[in-house]
Amino acid sequence: MPCFRLPSALLMLSALTACQSLPDIAHLPKSQLITEQVKVNRQKPIDIAPDALDQAIDEQIAHHRHASGYYPIATGANAFAARSVLTDMATTTIDIQYYIWHNDEAGRMMIHDLWEAAERGVMVRLLLDDFNGSPKLDELLLAFAKHPNVAVRLSNPFSHRKFRSASFLTEPTRINRRMHNKSMTFDNRLSIIGGRNIGNEYLNNAKHNNFSDMDVLLIGAVVDDVTTSFEQYWSSPTSYDIETLAKPTPKTLSELLDEPPSTVSSNEQVRALRTYRQALASSTIGEDLINKRVPFRWAMIEFLADDAKKLSNDAALDAHLVSLLQARLGRPMQKLSIISSYFVPTKEGVRTLRRLAKSGVAVSILTNSYDATDVGAVHAGYGHWRHDLLDAGVNLYELKSTAISIDDNKLWRSKQTSTTSLHAKAFAVDDAQVFIGSYNIDPRSANLNTELGVIIHDGRLAQQLHGALHSQRILNQAYKVVLTKQNTLEWHTLEHGKYTIHKSEPNMKIRHRAGVAVMSLMPIDWLL
Question: What is the CATH number of the domain that holds 229?
């Protein structure tokens, strides 16, 4: 009878949610022991001769005692190969921190590489944000964590593992704060940080949509700062050992790695695996590191990251990355160029950018077009500010979904079936400083998520980033948004070598315009 069904449903929901909470103990003895062993491993006995890679790193650092080195990694092929090769070369420790780690070909191949490193005696610590987790990923991570040299922790985990959406009802405030940091550090000597997550689309190897992104390989003193930040997040009470959250799996890691992802065909899996193997076969980064052929640029490099206490809303405001950036970078005097996949400037940000532009600072911004973005709500938080920004003289560019990335070739992926979204996060201030990291120009990055990045004090790099947003060639990849005398917007671009003007937002249907218009009226910018 209907009169009994509603109470029954409520009782079921109550039973589902009442018995689910985070464990009292976050860190188990095994992972604590591994952490202690990591500290021991970092103190190499002086009577042990360094291997070829250590020796090459030491020699380069000795020539640049007051600087750190960086090497940009722009292509997905190089991003995958660098992580895989450095995993194979590691001898003591690998520390990994990511927002997303997909259970796809990229994620599984890297798990396999890390397992083999652990088999050699390398201590592997993997810290993942839990927002994009799943029961299947839990199963894979549990099997991986069975290795005696491996520890896996989840940051700010969902207490409901099977019915994950229930956590949004029971603890929405906590679940809304996410660890967006991305780093992978090898032997505390080399580190890769930037905007990339681990997954096919982030390495330009997905069939349909791929992300254009940027990482940097770091060497020198700055790597110690990356490790210090990782240790804070790893030991945080908001990071839980995977074994405390999910039930043990009877399957071995080999069995799970052999299972094809349920969302792809066998042909697609074979294609994805083949392209990763080709990337490894053609990579020379291992030999180049040993022979000191990697063209590191040496400069003063500052590593910055949010305090891990931000995840529990206990961090001081002046410890937020946005505050640290404002203090370090100061006010641009001549140029400000921003590349941000998610650009939600807010009223205060628009006011600041207008003030800069009207004072004579050349302000240029590249973000996603509606057709390229993977989060339509973000476009609503950006689109309604375009008139105000353009009116002040800000240059706005929006990446096309048809943009051809550096990886866009027949070996790495198919141009005919794949579109591109911007995922990089970088900005340059004057001809002096460049930030590269995980931080988007939006309220979520500033106030809710934790982020990291580096400020590189290199005028040449700053000039290159400015130049990329002022070159006419950008119109092959992006639309320049123009404010007409009639106060309407136009999108100017080059299509098949011909200068083209779109009078309405390209590739945006009426229902999309209506949806974006409605969302732009809603007070949700703080969530974006």
Answer: 3.30.870.10
